[in-house]
Design goal:
With 86 residues, the protein is mostly helical. It has one domain. Helices cover 88% and strands 0% of the residues. It contains 2 helices and no strands. Helix 1 runs antiparallel to helix 2. The longest helix is centred in the last third of the chain and has 47 residues. The mean pLDDT is 78.
């Protein structure tokens, strides 16, 4: 449950940063060109948020694969014991 909440929160943060970047680009294109300097802060934030999301997805997948491998090893040991008993 906690993993799903953190995924949702990180997705919302990424979406919010994308909307802020779009708003800054729109305002600076239409109105004041000085707003382009705000992208110096928001674009690295977007890259950082995306990197955190990708890393957390990778960790989650590798952890679940690790759990599957442990389950397979336990199953093989159990089958091996049963085979030896017969």
């Amino acid at each position: 449950m906690r993993n799903q909440k953190s995924d949702s929160i990180s997705g919302i943060i990424i979406l919010l940063i994308v909307f802020i970047n779009v708003l800054i680009i729109k305002v600076s294109y239409i109105g004041n060109a000085n707003w382009y300097f705000a992208l110096i802060l928001t674009l690295p934030l977007l890259v950082l948020a995306l990197a955190c999301k990708i890393i957390s997805e990778y960790r989650r997948k590798s952890y679940s694969q690790f759990q599957r491998n442990i389950f397979k090893k336990q199953k093989l040991k159990k089958e091996k014991r049963q085979f030896q008993l017969v």
